Amino acid sequence: MWDWATQPFATVITTFVFGVYITSKAFGDKDQLSINYGWAMAGVGVIIALLAPVLGQGSDRSGRRMRNLLITTMLLAVISASLYLVAPDPGYFWLGVALLGVGNVVAEIANVNYYAAIDQVSTPDNVGRVSGLGWGMGYLGGIIIMLLIVALFGTDLGPDEIRISMILCGVWTVAFSIPIFLFIRDRKPRPKVSRVGPLGSYRELFRSIQDLWRTSRQTLYFLIASAIFRDGLAGVFTFGAILAGGTFGFTFGEVVIFGVVANIVAGISTAVFGILDDRFGPKRVIMASLIAMILAGFAIYLMHAQGKTVFWVLGLVLTMFVGPAQAASRSFLARLVPAGQSGEVFGLYATTGRAISFLSSTAWAVSISVAVWRTGLDKESAQYAGILGIVLVLLLGLLVLIPIRDPKPADAAAAAE
Known about the structure:
Oligomer: single chain
Largest sheet: none
Radius of gyration: 21 Å
Structural class: mainly alpha
């Protein structure tokens, strides 16, 4: 339910609605807005990279993950609703960016607590199923609220409709997260430990990394591999809509329809693959998903001139495997985490992901630039080559993942104790 409750921030606010609104001409020159927005989000990434492992460590120390999750979830709801205040005027641009940036930080910190609490609602035998179901519910929740917004306001949203939809997102998050906090409690309080300041937390963090290197080196290797392929997965959604509109000529309405269908497909496939995760192991699910996406992405590159049908078919293949890879990545790490270090390690999971979050966007831009240089086409006409950059990031993540051992049931049981 938590994935369902908080998905509006990712789907409606960050991706489809508010992120587009805040960089629209209502706030000034679109090119300059995009640059300012990009720098602001880069700063947000740095903040998350610095805070996530230390706050996760604090969550481990206090043993109050559900309380911390409650606080961050309610903050996320308030920030979502507060975006209503961002009127379509250049003077409100930095307010909107600031609220969105703080929301991203809060959402990522909430994710750290949520991921670390997965052992409270799962066992080593069903963690893959639970993780897959959570991701699937998130996708479906995002689509339901998108359909609700379209039903209320249509596909051509004006500034007022966009601002009202922000309040709807905040209310949605509160309403659907309440059952979680009513029925799920922290298992047992941790023994009281002395409080540690920020510098002490970082010293302890580096000691923990050294301990992981000595005692659970596979965990560190997986953090690196997953950071790479997760950035590729993010790139699929980040640039998918751009590719659909720019290369394949989708209208805005067609992009919305594709987004709805894609998220439904992703939600169902993620839940189904969660069952396969428990049966065959998360590594096989991740590898199969990455291979399928690499092949589909390369096929899109080769067949880009064949029309919209190509993207409808192969684009849905891509989205079909994004969720399973994300969910299996979470369950893989949950099986590897040493006992008592869930918050800290999932904090590192967030940090490593943010540390190389430039890979997909850089690979996308470089691939297009190389295509322009080699073919003489303009950037718009050569946009199709950007998919090769995403494919290369996914391939790199796959290659780094291959030597890592799939966690055995015994490993998962030990981590859960």
